[in-house]
Amino acid sequence: LQTKILTKPLAFWEYLKPLNSLNYSEFSRELIFTFNQFKKKFTFDKIIQLFINSVVQNITSIRMIHRNSSSTPVKAMLGNTEISASQLSRLLPSIPTDVLAETFAALLNQIKIEKQVTTSNALRLIDSTTISFSAKAYEWAEFRKKKHGIKIHLNYCYTDNGSMHPETFTI
Fold first, then answer.
1. 89 by DSSP, 3-state: which?
2. How far apart are CA 158 and CA 108, in angstroms?
3. Averaged pLDDT, groups of 10, the chain, 171 residues long
4. pTM exceeds cut of 0.90
């Protein structure tokens, strides 16, 4: 399986522009500071950039993210450092989920402002996805006797100009 790589750095940075203008709450700023304090190479911003790049490239696994991290544009974004699959799997549980939720909600609000959606130019769909977690690391996320995880309900909006974005989400 081959990974498609963004070769134009400007194209990638277009996805990250809205992140620069986010005003995080005091609580989120403290969580980001704490996260960055104990990470030598991979700050919160770099990890977010890595995962946004992975979403844009339709990379669906930690191993594929690792393989993609050796590409020149991604390696440059990470400060000429590659990230291994095991580093990613250890890093994921420590990412502050409250900050991710705040980031997602803020980006969603920016999309709603930029995309004028009316009832006549949009189709709305609901998607339900279950994300499985390790039973040992996420005891609080039990949804079956031997399975742990969360269910996310996303309300997607497809507009007549071909764009798509989530409008609301529920966990």
1. helix
2. 14
3. 42 59 83 84 81 79 82 70 81 83 78 69 78 78 80 78 73 77
4. no
Q: Under a CB-based contact definition with an 8 Å cutoff, are residues 82 and 66 in contact?
A: yes
- Site of tokens 């390696």: 75
CA angle 40, 67, 133 (to 5 degrees): 70
For the stretch 52-71, pLDDT in tens is 778 777 888 888 888 877 77
Among 116, 144, 117, residue whose Cα is nearest residue 132: 144
69 burial type by CB count under 10 A (0-12 exposed, 13-18 middle, 19+ buried): buried
Pairing of strands 148-159, 164-170: antiparallel
The answer to whether residues 31 and 99 touch, using CB atoms and an 8 Å cutoff, is: yes
Taking the CA atoms of residue 163, residue 168, residue 55 and residue 75 in that order, the dihedral angle to the nearest 10 degrees is: 110
Residues belonging to the chain: 171
